[in-house]
Amino acid sequence: GDSVTQMEGPVTLSEEAFLTINCTYTATGYPSLFWYVQYPGEGLQLLLKATKADDKGSNKGFEATYRKETTSFHLEKGSVQVSDSAVYFCALSGRRDAGKSTFGDGTTLTVKP
Amino acid sequence: DTAVSQTPKYLVTQMGNDKSIKCEQNLGHDTMYWYKQDSKKFLKIMFSYNNKELIINETVPNRFSPKSPDKAHLNLHINSLELGDSAVYFCASSQGGAEQPQHFGDGTRLSIL
User: Fold this and answer.
1) Do B45 and A100 touch (CB under 8 A)?
2) Contacts of A3 in chain B (CB under 8 A)
3) Are strands B10-13 and B108-112 parallel, antiparallel or unpaired?
4) pLDDT tens string for chain A (113 positions)?
5) B41/A45 touch (CB, cutoff 8 Å), yes or no
6) How far apart (Å, rounded) are the C-alpha atoms in residues A109 and B40?
């Protein structure tokens, strides 16, 4: 079945540091890929997405590129802020079972001033 | 103008009781979901409904019963609550299709005493 493997956390960075959170996936065919962010006390919200190979999703300074050859969708940000502290989830949605998304285990990011 | 709203936000109750959580979405989406998030932030899908029809039922004890009176509502009833049911329960909705993201409510924190 489909699966998503995320970099284990927690991750602690200083403000303005470079962020990478690794995400690799296993799926049949060509899934759509997503990054969601969960701030404390809130639900998940979409951060960015990519629906086909080589697409780059971007939002709020975050980027991720759909790499079919390495089955990866790593999240990056050039300069993190304290307000980026949250839990980040990588997810995929397969075209055969489009009603269901498979989520990674989440990576907790803490950014210190 | 909340997109996906759940009530109550907090639920504290005794073992053995029966409780319900309500969810409503005003996005016009066809598909709704229930997820359980444990204390380590792992997210696990429980149920999914498409146009009031159950399409996903993931190995959930039959003490949990979803009900969808119409496509804008998906409620979750839990019988004979157990300590292990303590978690945050999230409702979500999507338009369906692999490329569409899910929209989450803010969660219901269930604590069993």
Assistant:
1) yes
2) none
3) parallel
4) 889 999 888 999 999 999 999 999 999 888 999 999 999 999 999 999 999 999 999 999 999 999 999 999 999 999 999 999 999 999 999 876 656 889 999 999 999 99
5) no
6) 14
